[in-house]
Backbone:
């Protein structure tokens, strides 16, 4: 996508966001909402600048947690997807249980992890990884199953084994699907990291937001929320950039699911 194409994609949401912020500021300036209830964007920005070192320290802790959990969840999702793809019997038994596991709220699992693993980094990383691995695993499984049947039949005719089929046909075909899963996981990872910090942490943006809300400091809560949004967008953008780098053959008209039209 060229610069003009990128601009056409970015400017509508950017313009709408700026319009919303201007309306928010106007409502605050007119005194229609009390500042202690909903501070203005400028007040939030001033507060963020005033506590920037402390805010960035908490952001760094959340970024570390998110990246470790995202990497661990991605690795687990890829490994499990390959295992289930190569062993259909295991997939038939395990896949429904994986889907069922996603119906358990992470706010319930988090305290159990703290009981089992203590107040260390490990339970929080596990919580983020648990959220990230499922979209990666499902997307990868879908991609591995969508190989061209004619090419698959040809490779079997020339004597390709399961490993060669996986590396030379199925895995390359699954890459667009994989990156779709990675972008979903990237979006969820920061949010799950914040929730993990709510449950039990001594630093991080989730911990900072919890303290600020209990201290009736909404400007600090909004400043932390803005950083969470920025981190989520940055991780999503990194996944999208990696997709463009590794899947140069993908047509520009490919659908959102990742499969070329």
Residues:
């Amino acid at each position: 996508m060229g610069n003009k194409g990128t601009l056409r994609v970015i400017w509508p949401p950017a313009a709408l966001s700026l319009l919303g912020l201007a309306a928010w500021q106007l409502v605050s300036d007119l005194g229609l909402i009390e500042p202690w209830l909903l501070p203005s964007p400028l007040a939030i920005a001033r507060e963020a600048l005033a506590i920037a070192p402390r805010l960035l320290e908490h952001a760094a802790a959340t970024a570390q947690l998110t990246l470790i959990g995202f990497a661990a969840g991605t690795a687990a999702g890829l490994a499990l997807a390959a295992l289930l793809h190569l062993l259909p019997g295991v997939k038939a038994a395990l896949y429904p249980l994986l889907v069922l596991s996603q119906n358990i709220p992470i706010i319930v699992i988090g305290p159990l992890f703290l009981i089992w693993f203590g107040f260390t980094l490990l339970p929080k990383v596990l919580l983020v990884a648990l959220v990230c691995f499922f979209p990666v695993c499902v997307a990868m499984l879908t991609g591995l199953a969508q190989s061209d049947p004619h090419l698959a039949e040809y490779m079997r005719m020339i004597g390709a084994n399961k490993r060669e089929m996986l590396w030379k046909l199925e895995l390359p075909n699954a890459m667009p699907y994989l990156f779709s899963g990675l972008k979903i996981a990237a979006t969820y990872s920061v949010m799950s990291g914040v929730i993990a910090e709510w449950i039990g942490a001594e630093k991080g943006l989730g911990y900072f937001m919890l303290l600020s809300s209990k201290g009736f400091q909404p400007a600090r809560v909004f400043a932390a929320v803005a950083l969470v949004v920025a981190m989520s967008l940055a991780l999503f953008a990194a996944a999208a950039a990696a997709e463009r780098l590794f899947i140069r053959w993908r047509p520009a008209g490919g659908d959102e699911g990742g499969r070329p039209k």
